[in-house]
Amino acid sequence: xxxxxxQPQAVQQLSDQHPSKENAKENAQLTAAWLTLGLVxxxxxxxxxxxxxxxxxxIRILQSDQPTLEGLGLNGGMARSIALAGKGEGNKxxxxxxxxxxxxxxxxxxxLVTRDSPxxxxxxxEIPDAPPLFYVKGDPAFLHQPQLAIVGSRNPTAGGRRNxxxxxxxxxxxxxxxxxGLALGIDVESHVGAMEAGGSTIxxxxxxxxxxxxxxxxxxxxxxxxxxxxxxxxxxxxxxxxANFPRRNxxxxxxxxxxxxxxxxxxxxxxxxxxxxxxxxxxxxAIPGSIHNPVARxxxxxxxxxxxxxxxxxxxxxxxxxxxxxxxxxxxxxxxIPHSELPAETKKVLKAIGYDVTSFDEIVVETGxxxxxxxxxxxxxxxxxxxxxxxxxxVLASA
Length: 399
Description:
This protein has helices spanning about 10-15, 25-40, 45-55, 60, 65-70, 75-85, 90-105, 120-125, 160-175, 185-195, 220-225, 245-255, 270-280, 295-305, 315-320, 345-350, 360-365, 370-385, and strands at about 110-115, 135-140, 145-150, 175-180, 200-205, 230, 260, 285, 310, 385-390, 395.
């Protein structure tokens, strides 16, 4: 695809899709230029942004010849690839990918947001390696709402899942849009909590914008489109490659005023997100957990290094109150559940359970009650919301 001649049919179709836009043909050609430059093999955000700073637009970049690009500091291979792409002489794979991207953009609620677009969020534009372009499925307007990222383990405890959903609900009620990565565990609980509250949520993907990963989140994927937006800097068709997920984490933190880590091991993607948030000048919050819980140790490390320890959503709203003043009272901690009416044996079982996981055998030993009666009491306590069942035992309901 060249950028000195007439645009091809696929680009013209994109132009026809938006007849109300001024200079629709030029806009469509510019869209194709953004995509073409982004699809050049080896192109990355810092280089793309540097070229934009020097030449002003992707069309001017693609119209530059190899010597000009080398004069800007590019190596010969990259300069040649860009020059060939600008002449429409790029490889067939790039041509096919461009057609795929243009076809995807013809879909309902499908958008390309570029660095010079009014839809580009101001906070994201501040980070050092801001994506020059990204894809959105849903409503890009949600990207301008104050966002709070919630991240954590893919294998959380029952209490961690409850905390993620509860904090997301309360923060959503306090005016935040909840941002996360649609991963298993804490991420998906956060998205669901926001939607349960009737609020908006943003999912930043580590795959192409058209890929549901993990596949079990298909329903939630579609719900987020209706109550927020899906975001990806990866073009349609890109699979879930391991290297993509650390890259997407900078966007999760970059979109947000702060990052809440619910549960995380010391070496985890959530810790990468928290580190990126600190580098970007964002607030980092962490929920403390049991000293025996391996997925609480990352949170403890963050707190010891200066992250704000939070016990309620109100702690976060207070810290970010400049934008959401007057709404902190919405995010009140849950009141202690009265249990004076519980049968004596059930009270005894409840007293034996703490916020650390307590096994069934430990409860039997602690209470001295027959195991069958303990089992009945545990079922009743769980049904009434006093406790949660974990993989290895039981914990008090924390939210």
